[in-house]
Amino acid sequence: MSERRTANPFGSAAVELVIATPSPAASSAVQPSAGALDPSNLSCPVPIPERARVLLGHGSGGQLSAALMRDVIAPALAMFGASPGGPLNDAAVVEVAGGRLAFTTDSFVVSPLEFPGGDIGELAVNGTVNDLAMMGAQPLALSLAYVIEEGLPIDELRKVTESVARAAARAGVRIVTGDTKVVGRGAADGLFVNTAGIGLVAPGVSLSADRACAGDAVILSGPIGLHGIAIMSVREGLDFEVEIASDTQPLNALAAAIVAVCPEVRVLRDPTRGGLASALNEIASASGVGIELREETIPIPGPVRGACEMLGLDPLHVANEGKLVAIVPAASAEAVLEAMRSVPEGADAVEIGRVVADHPSMVTMSTIVGSQRIVDMLVGEQLPRIC
Amino acid sequence: MKYVDEYRNAEIARKLVDEIHRITTKPWALMEVCGGQTHTLVKQGIDEALPAGVRMIHGPGCPVCVTPLEQIDKALAIAARPDVIFTSYGDMLRVPGSTTDLLSLKARGADVRIVYSPLDAVRIAAANHDRQVVFFAIGFETTAPANAMAVRQAARLGLDNFTVLVSHVLVPPAMTAILESPTNQVQAFLAAGHVCAVMGWTEYEPIAERYHVPIVVTGFEPLDLLEGILMAIRQLETGRAVVENQYARAVKREGNPEARETVLRVFEVGERTWRGIGAIPASGYHLRREFAKFDAEARFEVGDIHTREHPACIAGQILQGTRTPLDCTAYGVLCSPQKPLGAPMVSAEGVCSAYHAAGRGLAAPTAFPLYDLQRVDR
Amino acid sequence: MCLGIPGKVVEVRDDGPLRMAKVDFGGVRKEACLAYLPEVVLGDYVIVHVGFAISQLDEEEALRTLELLRMIDSEGVAMELGSMPEDPAAEGSGAPPGAASGAA
User: Fold this and answer.
1) Which segment of A219-228, A240-249, A285-294, A330-339 scores lowest on mean pLDDT?
2) Main-chain dihedrals φ then ψ at residue A330, nearest 5 degrees
3) Which residue of A has its CA nearest to C50?
4) Chain A: residue whose CA lies nearest to C30
5) Is B338:B370 a contact under the CB 8 Å cutoff?
6) For residue range A306-322, what is the model confidence (pLDDT) as tens digits?
7) Contact A312, A386 (CB under 8 A)
8) Which of A143, A242, A268, C6 could form a disulfide with A134 if both were Cys (CB 3.0 to 4.6 A apart)?
9) Which of B361, B347, B260, B332 shows the shortest CA–CA distance to B36?
10) Which one is predicted more confidently, B2 or A279?
């Protein structure tokens, strides 16, 4: 490629780019050592992004994750009719012998294994209990599977397992089955945990991401951003002292309180990876409605704000592990708020917005000058920025 | 947060908007040369709240966006080496080079690490004597003091495995180049607040005088931007053209003398290529000869890189402010934050990314399919 | 190159070749290098960018700017356009005539 430049780079002809496909011989003079990649030798004319491999961003809960599910996983599963299709919810509901069983699974790959406010064991139990709770189900039983990296200290394994036991007792659920595998050094971040869970959906309750209706109230159970920032505070490369602990906790009692006072509740969702913004976008999209938020009502703890300001992160994109969003008919909003606040996990519950018929699939928030701005979904990995 | 929240007061914001409307009697074109300012303007809808004739042209203020393709490709070539730990600010990881980007390289096994400060990179070098640690030293004048100190620190520690890949650019030469262009429409500038916190504003006085353009040193919060715009328009309406300082709480006329001194001890001014724009003389920093041993370009043979921009990407014209993302045929179709063709779509401060996140010009804010390249009729 | 936010210096360490500080940003603390602000002491506010304090926040100026902003009133702004201060690099929101405009 060559550039034809006028004397003034901003001249009217600007910069003309003449595109030529580079031949391998003409490319970079770098002599990579054997086995190293030489990106300038790749001659695919269609440029980035990376298409052939999974990126970290595919696991972040944002748009890339959604694209991976929609374009790769779901179509593959749909072959031979293996997958039922339908909106993606936190758990599946399966009709069984006259009842409805909620069924979910989650893998936990957090690093470090222990962080302010909890560890991977507690996270795993609460995460699965919460996915069941978001479908209106009380957890019946959990499975626990470990993939352990060779070399993990036995004491750590014991400690994590004790956390699992403690968390399960707190949530009122039992671990009934499991599996343990060990992989070679370097093949896992110390420990990967998978939990699966089943629960019975309460009769008369029908929670799903596609049930939000114009006019409904959007309620948040408490302050956001704690888990993600707590994790970031210890992770390599973003090390700083923060008096923030993960908010990981079981939400089944809170969900039960909501369902008891408002069986017509439309959607319950815990905004984990991708944050509040991604969860609301998914709901708006599945239901074909718009959501309008009031920024001043969204509770964000001071240190979370400070950390986000410093790193250039949006608190609405930061993961939570002990919060839920409830979409309820407007008439029930007051009663639901009161019921939530009577339970410790919902003490700070607050209404943060409304579902509207306008701008379907879009979540908006008012700007400082009074217009509406779009609250988008996280794209890929949250990268701290400098600008 | 103290000294932040107060400058986000909605009531004062609306008063400022009203005042801008009250005093504006003619159409004006203003340019901000700072990605952080662009980000706030677009995100908060400030540019759309201005009087109809007042246009904010978004200047080349995003250092991530203007880092020349050659430097990105060099970074990729270096990062691909197994003996290298490549460290960088987070923003740079998704910027597309000719064929790939740092994040994708990381996915394929390259040791690419995000650092918050260049001193972190020095620490990594000190802790990994058997590896080569390279730091991607990009930025405007704001970041140069940090990068300079990292080099000095590495020298002090006697590190022989630490190098920097430099791609610093300077604001005043870019402003001058824009003003010299026959197609220039910019009548006033908002100068970047933190660039001036380091450099002061003495370099802008001759520019204001020579080209008769008001230049207002402006902060980054919504009230700062609105006040800066108000001050600029007041000057325009009265025919004045001087440098004013809206960001008085952080900027003094002489800037930060210690920082400037250290920067010039380590770097010298030279020509730099701005991605999508071209070479601008005396518009960037290069390492001084005394520090050549810390120059990644010398340590790793990365000459003779052939760069290739995507043909549909009009980043150059967007960075010059002659086009907006809405004029781009690829915007929102072939080019989106998930699969960016050019730098302004990657960086959170890039104009295209700001527009896309705000949903401007998009039919519906759906996540674009990863593997679908079909055109959507708009 | 802008992401720099104001924080309060809550700890200073003079050991080692570089003067370092712990800066508090609304409750979250991070280390920052004070090498470029030798005059800064405990309790001062600084603007930190990529781990370096690059500018000391002038609290008086901060308050002054806020006061002037609050005075902006589209109904009857005190200042007339013609009576703006003439000296270059005039600061603040164009103070009403008679108010101190501050030296450059």
Assistant:
1) A240-249
2) -55, -40
3) A386
4) A240
5) yes
6) 888 877 788 999 999 99
7) yes
8) A268
9) B347
10) A279
The chains found to touch B (3+ Cβ pairs under 8 angstroms) are A, C
Closest CA relative to residue B144, chosen from C17, C16, C52: C52
Query: Quick check: A384 and A311 in contact, CB under 8 A?
Result: yes
Among the partner-chain residues A12, A19, A53, the one whose CB lies closest to the CB of B107 is A53
On the CB side of A305, how many CA atoms lie within 13 Å of its CA? 15
Distance CA C92, CA C100 (A): 10
Amino acid at B287: L
Instruction: Report the C-alpha gap between A45 and B145 in whole angstroms.
Output: 39
Search chain C and give the residue with CA nearest B220: C2
For residue A306, list chain B residues with Cβ-Cβ distance below 8 A. Answer: 1
Extended strands (E) in chain B: 28-32, 54-58, 84-88, 111-114, 132-139, 162-169, 188-192, 215-218, 243-245, 267-274, 278-287
- Tokens linked to A71: 């374009």
Q: Across the interface, which of B48, B90, B306 has its CB nearest the CB of A22?
A: B306
Bridge partners, C31 (sequence order): C22
Complex-level ipTM: 0.84
Beta carbons of A386 and C1 less than 8 Å apart: yes
Rounded-to-integer distance, Cα B97 and Cα A69, Å: 27
> Do residues B303 and A29 lie in contact, with contact meaning Cβ atoms separated by under 8 Å?
yes
Listed residue (B73, B100, A284, A238) closest to A269, CA to CA: A284
φ and ψ at residue A370, rounded to 5 degrees: 95, -5
Taken as a whole, chain B contains a residue count of 378
